[in-house]
Fold:
Amino acid sequence: MSEGRPAGSGGANDVPERSRAAPGTVYLVGAGPGDPDLLTVRAWRLLRTADVVLHDSLLREAILEDLPPSVEVLDVGKRGEVRTEQSAINDLLVERARAGDAVVRLKGGDPFVFGRGGEEAQHLAAHDVAFEVVPGVSSVLAAPGIAGIPLTHREHASRFTVITGHETPEKDGSSLDWDDIAGQIDRGGTLVILMGVRTLAENVRALRDHGVAADTPAAIVQRATWPRQAVVSGTLEDIVERTREADVKPPATTVVGEVLEVHDEIEDDLCPFEPA
Amino acid sequence: MSEGRPAGSGGANDVPERSRAAPGTVYLVGAGPGDPDLLTVRAWRLLRTADVVLHDSLLREAILEDLPPSVEVLDVGKRGEVRTEQSAINDLLVERARAGDAVVRLKGGDPFVFGRGGEEAQHLAAHDVAFEVVPGVSSVLAAPGIAGIPLTHREHASRFTVITGHETPEKDGSSLDWDDIAGQIDRGGTLVILMGVRTLAENVRALRDHGVAADTPAAIVQRATWPRQAVVSGTLEDIVERTREADVKPPATTVVGEVLEVHDEIEDDLCPFEPA
Structure:
């Protein structure tokens, strides 16, 4: 078959050699934001040629449909009923690779942006287990993208900064971090906050306290590429209230900055991504 | 056929309805860092069901191999022999969509991170042309990822900032931007510089001038997922010289920050991504 085709009629058997999961190796694979169409071709192929897939809970089931029956699928997510400790996940990765399995560790978004991919890599290296990192489409880019929000734009933003909403503002009593972040927004940068629904009010207050203007545009993209995806936009003045009124639920990605003017300009002709 | 399979034996004809390029619509599609395996499944499918593909020059040819003969492929890149003005690209997108074609505008990395995707979207919206944004794997994440450099890590970095090397330090006579960026690195942030080979020395000097320590780790990833990919690592003190010695060529992605300690710890067991 052609090298360019993810799989031919024979399914997993048609995956080209270089794209097959190898025995004794762990693949730290990014699953993308949710929709199976936003897996990479490499992730799609590795999933179908692995012996075992260990995945997080925040994953759309459609990604795991249609895997060959030879692939064992384990939910090692840290939410929901089955709660697996990080140390247990680490041990399982080593154990299965040492047993000669081709192991896919499937992580939401990109494996090396938040979510402990680096720590899993350290554990594997400490136990001399070969591993590969397979980059994925991070929600950092995907959520703004499908919502029609460019992170950079020649006239509006020449840089962007990414933080996670899980961090508490002024942790350690220091406000220097927020000074830097606020400064970036003031001087033509975009701020992206991952997973910041619950801490949105605190984060907005921190930005305001560090001098970011109340009329700075802000938007929150809920459940990008999942059913019930939605975009709520406003300014730092009213985004908390608007988000509350719209009953925005995690996971969500927040964007702050002047680039949102582009979003307002283009949204009427934007075809929204249609989740599977 | 199964919804989960990018294409069955029939090739383009087997692509499910929701993943097919629609007439009169422009798809701003991220091509990923280079290797065809790092296309998204959605990009792979849209490429095979489009009437016309307009692509940049910085694209691996393997991505365009195996397209059905019905797909017209136009190089509108701004490098090399054929140089197309941005306004001509904009006009062509509108013209082909209005003629009823399903148009894929294929851009390196992610369409909304640098590279004028936002401007193309504005032009389409101004002419009432329907468009969709298809996020891709940006080199921002992919180059560090395949090189074994996490952008965040619980012990080393809780945030990252992305700039482009094309920007001249202290443009407009202001050094405030560099104060912010330097501050972020000092306080546990990672800096990613896209396309910064030619301006590396200037950027390193700007960081040093704004107080970032000489022993701060830095690395440059050359041609991620292309033939002759390479990683050169050092510190702000010696990275310019090391990069010169290794004769690093664009495209390349630079990473500065403490997360590089993780890279040094794990690199022996990292399987490098093997470009097609």
